[in-house]
Design goal:
By secondary structure, this protein is an alpha/beta fold. Helix content is 40%, strand content 20%. The protein has helices spanning 14-29, 44-50, 56-63, 87-98, 121-124, 165-181, 196-209, 222-231, 243-257, 295-307, 312-327, 345-355, and strands at 3-10, 35-39, 67-72, 102-108, 128-134, 146-149, 155-158, 185-190, 216-221, 238-241, 264-268, 274-278, 330-331, 341-342. The chain has two domains: 1-101 and 269-356, Isopropylmalate Dehydrogenase; 109-259, Isopropylmalate Dehydrogenase (3-Layer(aba) Sandwich). The chain starts with a strand and ends with a helix. Bound molecules: nicotinamide-adenine-dinucleotide. The site of nicotinamide-adenine-dinucleotide (NAD) has 22 residues, from helix 4. Nicotinamide-adenine-dinucleotide (NAD) binds next to helix 4.
Amino acid sequence: MTKKIAVLPGDGIGHEIVAEAVKVITALQSDGLDVEMNEGLVGGSAYDVTGTPLPEETLTLARESDAILLGAVGGYKWESLDISVRPEKGLLGLRKELGLFANLRPAILYPQLADASTLKPEVVSGLDIMIVRELTGGIYFGQPRGVRTLDNGEREGYNTLVYRESEIKRITEVAFDIARKRGKKLCSVDKANVLECTELWREVVIDMHKDNSDVELSHMYVDNAAMQLVRAPKQFDVMVTTNMFGDILSDCAAMLTGSIGMLPSASLNEKGQGMYEPIHGSAPDIAGQNMANPLATILSVAMMLRYSLDEPAMADRIEKAVDNVLDQGLRTADIYSESMKKVSTTEMGDAVVAAL
Ligand code: NAD
């Protein structure tokens, strides 16, 4: 049956990078990929047309699709809007409405780009980590929350870290499954020595290991995990953690690679439906100049084929094609170094299509 992809370019460079990803999907369609693409508005460009960053029409399109390809949202133009209609609300609304609880953020450093990292090439070359972050629970959503005034007149801010066993189980299940398909090593990150909530997290993960004993399980406190990511990142295969710890650690891991324009991500719900997007934003500073790196978005399509469309061989083809264009020395401005060939957004997209 034909699978449906909702294509939501968003704002800024979103339009340019998604156009290149669509070229790649179109090329695969002529090789037998049975998908249909439908475009929708999200973010600031949706606000301009409809007065909301997440129009009902887009939400319906997203709900009815097997996967969503998102560019990025946001930009200077919309910064002074009320927070309730800012472009970012479109993205958060999609995550919430679709129940996208599992955020998969690979941090891969292509050996060809080892010089792009601020860390020594021998520490990061060949790095390939997958961080699985819980995305819809934890302290970012826990109640009660707020700022209150105490009897003595002093203000106090408070948030609640809360996880139900079922929430821990479903994210851990995703992480074990992914680890099984990769290096078969899972590190669960918590702060079980201080936080009861993550003590429960650790207990549940240990319990689930009984049914997943083919995967090697380890545990690490989050402070140590941050240190180890910078000290010896290649020790990790898959990491699973809470919403807030994952937010921080995945940015840290991404930056080990030094190239924000190269990293894809996926957010999945219980039905396997997923939203796929580059980890970077809408880069208003370079929008419209045909110089953004489209590879993170193209690699997001590879994740889509693997995790939502059940086409792992096509996913492999895209990843090999990206490897191939890097081998050819083609570089957009963000990853350019001397003696390489500088190319535009569209030239990079065309090169990937040719390498497919
Ligand atoms: P950003 O990721 O857009 O840009 C950071 C820097 O990286 C900029 O110098 C930019 O030019 C560069 N960059 C980003 N992607 C690139 C690419 N593909 N190729 C080459 N260079 C690239 O982050 P920011 O500047 O903090 O935010 C800009 C806007 O994007 C803001 O409105 C922010 O809210 C939004 N944002 C959206 C998302 C999202 O849609 N998921 C994520 C982060 C930020």
